Amino acid sequence: MVIAPLERGLAGLDRLGLPLQAGHPVIADYVRHQLIVLVPAGTGHHCEIPGSRVLRDGKWLLIPADTHGTAAATWLSRPHPHTPRLIDAHRLREALLHSDSSLGTGARSLE
After folding, report:
1. pTM value?
2. Which of 3, 9, 30, 54 is deepest in the core (most CB within 10 A)?
3. How many C-alpha atoms does 89 have within 13 Å on its Cβ side?
4. β-strand 2-3 against 26-29: which pairing, if any?
5. Ramachandran angles phi, psi of 96, nearest 5°
6. Nearest CA to 26 among 86, 67, 83, 68?
7. How far is the CA of 23 from the CAs of 59, 81, 83, 87, 97, in angstroms?
């Protein structure tokens, strides 16, 4: 899932209360000002709300090659090497909607 803006995605993750060291794959894209969160395959449609989009089959995602990342993108939470803990798309959607309503923030277009 791609969530914009970055702060909105971070607020949603805060709402879920997921520790960053727990092995949930989360990438901050500082160039596009977006958050990339990995959810189980085939469940992204549960989180399709304004300001988010699903990376579909045939799309490429460039990920940071090391633990430090770059000025363009970095891992906020690195996946566990053997069993990455993917974030439930339905729970992520609810957290984003709650954050949007409590903060009065709006989602921007991801075109």
Report:
1. 0.83
2. 9
3. 19
4. unpaired
5. -65, -45
6. 86
7. 23, 8, 8, 10, 24
H or E element that contains 74: strand 73-77
* Token output for 45: 């449609």
Strand order in the sheet with 73-77: 52-53, 2-3, 34-37, 26-29, 73-77
Tell me if 44 sits within 8 A of 89, measured CB to CB.
Answer: yes
Strands 2-3 and 52-53: antiparallel
C-alpha 8/C-alpha 111 separation (Å) is: 17
Structure token digits, residue 38:
């990995």
User: pLDDT of 14-63, one tens digit each?
Assistant: 999 987 778 888 999 999 999 999 999 889 888 889 899 998 878 888 78
